[in-house]
């Protein structure tokens, strides 16, 4: 059975050890329970996002030509 994942608000930017990607503060990050526990201990994720918040973030990323990768960068 596949492990269930949840989505969390990122409170501090970090580099995800599993993917090597930089995850920016303010984004929503998907993680399984074990990964989320490590990220919470490192104080880089906060509260769980609601389905409405996840859907809104996906919609915003779809509207951005680069998928939101440059959000917050000037």
Short description:
This protein has 74 residues and is an alpha+beta fold. It has helices spanning 33-41, 51-63, and strands at residues 5-10, 14-15, 22-23, 28-32, 45-48.
State the main characteristics:
single chain, alpha+beta, 2 helices, disordered C terminus, 74 residues, two-stranded antiparallel sheet, 3-stranded antiparallel sheet
Descriptive report:
This protein is of the alpha+beta class and 74 residues long. The protein has one domain. It is 30% helix and 26% strand. It has two helices and five strands; from the N terminus they run ββββαβα. The chain has helices spanning 33-41, 51-63, and strands spanning 5-10, 14-15, 22-23, 28-32, 45-48. The strands form two sheets. It has a three-stranded antiparallel beta sheet with strand order 4-1-5, with helices on one face. Strands 2-3 form a two-stranded antiparallel sheet. A hairpin with a 6-residue loop joins β2 and β3 (22-23). The longest helix has 13 residues, at 51-63. The protein is globular. The N and C termini lie far apart (43 Å).
SSE arrangement:
Layout: E1 5-10, E2 14-15, E3 22-23, E4 28-32, H1 33-41, E5 45-48, H2 51-63
Antiparallel strand pairs: 1-4, 1-5, 2-3
Note the main sheet: 3 strands, antiparallel
- What count of domains describes the coordinates? 1
Radius of gyration: 13 Å
Mean pLDDT: 87
The general outline is: globular
